[in-house]
Amino acid sequence: MSNSEGAYVTRLRATRGLTVQHPQLATETSDIERAPPSHLNHRQHVSGSTVKLVASRRMPPARPLFRPHCLAGSLTPFLCPPAVFFDAPLAAVARWCRIRQPLPLARCSSSTTEAPRRQFQPPQTQPSHLNPTPDNYALTPFADRCILTVEAGAGGHGCVSFLREKYIEEGPANGGDGGSGGNVYIQAVRGETSLHKLARRRLIKAGRGRNGQGKMRGGERGADVLITVPVGTIVREIQRHDPVGDEILAYRQAERFGRKLKGEEEVEGEKGSFRSDKWLVFPGMIPSELNRMTFPTLPPPRKSHLAALEPQAPIWLDLDKHMETPMLLAAGSMGGVGNPHFVTPNQFRPKMATRGDPGMKISMQLELKILADLGLVGLPNAGKSTLLRALSNSRARVGNWAFTTLQPNVGTVVLDNHKGRPAVMKRGRDGQLRENFTVADVPGLIEDAHLDKGLGLGFLRHVERAAVLAFVIDLSAGDAVQALKLLWREVSEYETLRGKELNAETERRMVTYKPPSSLTSSTDLVEFPDLESTIEPLPFIPTTPISAKPWFVVATKADLPNTQDNYAALQKHMGDVRTGAQPHPSNRKNAWKSNVQSVPISAIRAEGVEVIPQLVMDLLEE
Ligand SMILES: Nc1nc2c(ncn2[C@@H]2O[C@H](COP(=O)(O)OP(=O)(O)OP(=O)(O)O)[C@@H](O)[C@H]2O)c(=O)[nH]1
Ligand SMILES: [Mg+2]
């Protein structure tokens, strides 16, 4: 790590007699040593029963990355950087600081006894793509759900204008009509893997139509917008504000029941009064003239003919296929009409035009149903991120401590780079030759993750969204069969929990059923309230049960000594599961076990990983 920007660690409050099990990697230690000086003495400030300090050039993130319960002995001021992780009770995190001195290993070694921990093993190889230093990573922004408001373009205003030429002092009306607003389209495309770009934008507006101009020139159409989302996105409408739609409804009702519309009360016959939201008048007009003016009946409210292509409200779309052409979400509104539209035998020079219609606003929740083709499930520090690096060009963060990965990393494994024969020739569901598949490396699961421990339920949700699961098991970290059982226990407990919640949710919705029209009340969305806090949670997306998904085991770190026996036991267990001698680790009846197998690999040396793409492709067809 270059030390130009300095190393950041967290200063810890001092207490006596506690153990510091030290920076685990030699690389990290040397990073700390090379870090620029500061005023702190580590002996006074490092305490706790176990702490791993890792230096990083990254500045503290703007938002907390950890939730309190994910750290044993929760840390109060919640500003943990990605670079620091504590895995045992500590006094508190005080503030950010720079380290002055190197942290000598000897001084920090244990004095009080703790539960025995795995001894630090220095890395064998030089830093490389598969054995990177902890600061060699790229954080891929990721979001799998977001709330988005789209607004179709408003129409441009009509124009009040008159012909003026030599010898024609008072020419006829020649104001052009306003242009219609831009449309909002949506398209699910291959290659997108995350909704983070949309999550950041929150509001997407199509362009407004331009106003009409003199000499009968119509306004230009507003610019359309296209929202591209990953394949497997669910779009659910939360609220809708459609002023023109409401007007059309009111107009039809008034026609049917013979009621007068707003603005027509005071006048007799067919003429209406001035409505500032509907009419535009000649700019040179004085107020008294305006008062004397009579306005014709407003033209009936209308929508663009494209509105017929909009999906029915409330919108619920399951975009699970690549779309060749975009789909219309909200059509732009119509522009206002120019003053020639109001010429009558009595009124040759009307001084009014109509304003363009306001655009429709729709608030939607977008959620990724499918995260990736392959999901890597494993205990913390098992080697998932290293495996992802070995399979793809991902630069997921790798570090020899738990919870290095805090958010899913989605990498793409290229099967065909168009430079020769594809690595694996398989056709996807759409009949096209597959060129790649995606792999999601999710944060590690720990015991009781289903009770929201560790990084909790959010990440089990990601596990649920992969088509095939790979259980990554560290052969050097104790009994591999037990580890596999523990992972399956968490996953299946989560499945049970989800089933219960789904039932409760269905019951609740059946009791408090609201017709869709009441959901789409147009008055709710005039301003943008904090939708995330106001909306009721939407129902879960039904997906295949986790235990019914195809899965296999990746036994990693097979390069380390004394791992053969562990692998042999695991292989035997897998054989037993396949033949039915042992129950499926999830203990579920309809669990998938037809072709379960284990693959021994060394991700750090990229050995054995080449069989995984073929295996995944086979399982994706199941
Ligand atoms: N010897 C050896 N070490 C490995 C192998 N794979 C990963 N490691 C090391 O194991 C440590 C943890 O690897 P990560 O890839 O960060 O593990 P992870 O499962 O992503 O960890 P979390 O993100 O914290 O859940 C790193 O120090 C890696 O260098 C391997 O095949 N052989
Ligand atoms: Mg990781």
Detailed description of the structure:
The protein is an alpha/beta fold and 622 residues long. It has 3 domains: 1-114, no CATH class; 145-368, Spo0b-associated Gtp-binding Protein, Chain: A, CATH 2.70.210.12; 372-522 and 535-620, Rossmann fold, CATH 3.40.50.300. It has 13 helices and 18 strands. It has helices at 26-34, 42-45, 105-108, 196-201, 243-257, 287-292, 384-391, 457-464, 480-511, 516-519, 531-534, 564-579, 611-620, and strands at residues 8-12, 93-98, 145-151, 184-189, 203-205, 225-230, 233-241, 279-281, 316-319, 327-330, 352-354, 361-368, 372-378, 409-414, 436-441, 466-474, 551-556, 598-600. The strands form 5 sheets. Strands 14-15-13-16-17-18 form a 6-stranded mixed sheet, with helices on both faces. The longest helix has 32 residues, at 480-511. The protein is elongated, with a radius of gyration of 32 Å. The model is unreliable at 1-123, 265-270 and 516-528 (pLDDT under 50). Residues 131, 378, 380-386, 398-400, 402-405, 443-444, 556-557, 559-560, 602-604 line the site of guanosine-5'-triphosphate (GTP). This is GTP-binding protein Obg/CgtA.
